[in-house]
Specification:
The protein is α+β, with helices and mostly antiparallel strands and 716 residues long.
């Protein structure tokens, strides 16, 4: 069956069957997506992570469909209902909805109005009426009056017959397909405000009386409507025009124009209103929700990728402050490895005495620990604290950087933080997180549940299982793209390395604590529970800066060391010489090292890595400063031109921090002079931009911004 799946997936994704089959085999052998994309290019034809993930997801869907198909066949066989024709239909079904439509008439069901009518012996009457011949339905129905069976009158008999016909119409595969298409293409979402909820439902005012085609509604709008419904403020229906639906069904089931046909017509209307429409509405709600979820998750995942791959400051001695007014600012000092050296609390926003004392403390700590840069959280009192630190004119660069502190409080209360800083309270832990995420965003943010980082839209409303899967994919992709320093990485970071996971990551840290730093990648094989497969998957993504083998600091996989050693031997030099001397590398004819298992893609990767071993793929860090004197919304004026930094990109625009404790929104119509369909094509997370203030709504805390003619191409 997997061969059939590979063929189907290949056609759908426009790939070769060989590529798909090879990828499926690797996935079934528990190879990770980053490993396959990086180290098995010859096998897959150089498929990237996106293509491999698409194959994995489609394969999972097809296998689920096949499992359901087998369960249905088994059920039918056990009840002796399976015929050759039915089995052929079931095997040909290529979607779950079609499969369930085929099975619907045979599905064990509770007693319905139709089954009760059948029990009363009214099936022959229903069959006669469905033939729509020249008969008098009432006269015919009189023959089925049987008070012992509960059929009191001819009208009761006709009602029972129509119930049977209505259920037959509902279970008709072609009818369901036609109505499903109608709901999908002509379904209209209608929302209404629930009476008496005007005050509570104010944030959903746009949807108090709303209509929109389900096929055109954007993800964020549908999720907003569904949230309003879930919270009990809105009613939501998705239906096409009833007349159109009934006309389609009548076209299929009415074969004559007589008294019997009139009975069928009544049954069609009943079957649609009572059974088929509710079934199709449930389906379209599920389908539209799934599409909205997928789009919201895609946006979130892309934002998360950009956030995780934000430029790192690097190894600097940092002072980090978690600002506050009444409770003061928690200050921590970190060494260049992120180790906590000192913590304190200052009150720069209190009395003059408190301010003077805070200034002395900052100057003393800055000099005592030879600090190089200062990180300030962008929450409450952030801009005021930044202004205070800047006013001290500290020696050296003394640069002050505002750091997005989203999720810092989540980390500070997490098990990871408690384990790392058990003797310190949450305020110290939060300040450490702020400083470390400036130093290396990726290494610090992996300790936080991605949902808490705040770069999505309606992330708490979407399918949580699917969200977790996709975000885990992104985190794993980013971690392995950058590579991980084996001797300094936290177990949270190591857990995302290809082939490791939480248990193996913990074993590596335990081994490192007991045995000291790793000196070579080969030493990983001694870690309990890692095994041959785990080593194969992980080794290439782990770095040892001062390892015994020069390639241990690179992305060259240990399985390829022999290739590089042969290159060095052929040139009568060492591997280290090859890394350091470009002239030597230019003498290498990579084609001469092609073998049955090693092709040009791997060899080209090796040469690129030799040129810049272990190079960080992230951009260089650039300092950013907000406009001085603009600290709160009240300071804003329409027409102001201000520097800002993009904090979130959605389908409808970009949120931008301009330093006033409330992000402004640049609607996609204000991102560029030309039409913008996808904001992500215009702006990126952490991009430094220049914006114009269009509107300030203080009561609703909303700021409208424009980037027209003001975009900067630089990224931070």
């Amino acid at each position: 069956m997997d061969h059939v799946f590979s063929s189907k997936i290949a056609k759908e994704l426009h790939l070769t069957e060989k590529q798909v089959h090879a990828t499926v085999q690797l996935l079934d052998e528990d190879a990770t997506i980053p490993f396959i994309a990086r180290y098995r290019k010859e096998v897959t034809g150089s498929l990237d992570e996106v293509a491999i993930a698409a194959i994995r997801d489609r394969l999972h869907h097809l296998r689920e469909l096949d499992a359901r198909r087998k369960a249905i066949l088994k059920s039918l066989e056990e009840r002796e209902l399976l015929t050759d024709e039915l089995e052929e239909k079931i095997m040909a079904a290529d979607t779950l909805s079609v499969l369930e439509d085929i099975y619907l008439p045979f599905r064990p069901k509770r007693r319905t109005r139709a089954t009760i009518a059948k029990e009363k012996g009214l099936m022959p009457l229903a069959d006669l009426i469905m033939e729509q011949g020249a008969l008098d339905p009432f006269a015919e129905a009189a023959n089925y009056v049987d008070k012992e069976k509960g059929v009191e009158t001819a009208e009761a008999a006709l009602l029972g017959a129509r119930d049977i016909i209505a259920e037959r119409i509902n279970e008709d595969q072609e009818a369901r397909a036609v109505i499903r298409e109608l709901f999908s293409t002509q379904g209209i979402i209608k929302t209404k405000m629930i009476a008496g909820k005007e005050e509570e439902a104010l944030k959903y005012k746009d949807y108090w009386d709303w209509e929109e085609a389900v096929g055109k509604v954007p993800s964020h709008r549908l999720l907003a409507m569904r949230r309003g419904e879930k919270e009990g403020f809105l009613t939501l229906r998705i239906l096409p025009e009833e007349e159109v639906a009934l006309a389609l069904l009548e076209r299929r089931f009415l074969t004559n124009e007589n008294a019997a046909s009139e009975q069928v017509k009544i049954a069609i209307a009943d079957g649609y209103k009572r059974l088929l429409s509710s079934s199709m509405e449930t389906e379209i709600r599920t389908d539209s929700r799934h599409k909205a979820d997928q789009e919201a998750i895609r946006v979130f995942a892309e934002n998360l990728r950009q956030l995780l791959l934000a430029p790192p400051l690097g190894q600097k001695r940092i002072m980090a402050l978690d600002p506050g007014f009444r409770t003061g600012c928690k200050v921590v000092c970190l060494d260049s490895q992120g180790k906590l050296l000192h913590h304190d609390t200052i009150y720069p926003h209190g009395s003059q005495n408190k301010q003077d004392e805070a200034a002395r403390t900052i100057r003393d700590l800055y000099e005592r620990y030879q600090l190089e840069i200062i990180a300030v959280g962008n929450g409450t009192a952030g801009r005021e604290t930044e202004a205070f630190i800047t006013s001290l004119h500290l020696p050296g660069d003394g640069a002050v950087v505002m750091v997005n502190e989203s999720g810092a409080s989540v980390y500070s209360a997490s098990e990871a933080a408690r384990e790392e800083f058990s003797q310190y309270d949450v305020t110290v832990r939060g300040s450490v997180s702020i400083g470390r995420r400036l130093m290396d965003p990726l290494a610090e943010l992996v300790k936080i549940d991605p949902k808490a980082i705040g770069v999505g839209q309606y992330q708490h409303d979407v399918d949580q299982k699917l969200l977790k899967e996709k975000l885990d994919d992104v985190v794993m992709s980013c971690v392995n793209k950058v590579g991980v320093e084996l001797n300094t990485a936290s177990k949270q970071l190591l857990a995302y390395v290809s082939g490791l996971g939480q248990k193996r990551a913990r074993n590596i840290v335990d081994y490192r604590d007991e045995q000291g730093p790793f000196t070579s990648r080969k030493e990983l094989k001694r870690v309990p529970g890692l095994g041959k497969k785990g080593f194969e998957q992980a080794a290439g993504f782990l770095r040892i800066s001062q390892g015994t083998h020069p390639l241990d600091a690179s992305a060259v996989h240990p399985e390829s060391y022999m290739i590089v050693e042969n290159m060095a031997q052929d040139l009568n030099c060492s591997v280290k010489d090859l890394i350091e001397d470009e002239a030597l590398r230019k003498k290498i004819d990579v084609k001469s090292y092609i073998t049955g298992t090693v092709g040009l893609p791997t060899l080209q990767d090796i040469m690129s890595e030799l040129a810049k071993p272990g190079r960080d793929p992230r951009d260089s860090f650039e300092l950013f400063s907000f406009a001085e004197g603009i600290n709160c919304m009240e300071d804003l004026k329409v027409g102001m031109k201000l520097p800002g930094i993009v904090t979130n990109v959605t389908d409808f625009g970009a949120f931008i921090d301009i330093g006033v404790h409330q992000d402004g929104l640049a609607h996609k119509s204000e991102l560029a002079d030309t039409f913008v369909k996808n904001p992500a094509e215009v702006v990126k997370l952490n991009q430094h931009v220049s914006v114009t203030v269009l509107n300030v709504d203080l009561p609703r805390k909303r700021i409208s911004l424009s980037l027209k003619d003001k975009r900067q191409e630089s990224n931070a």
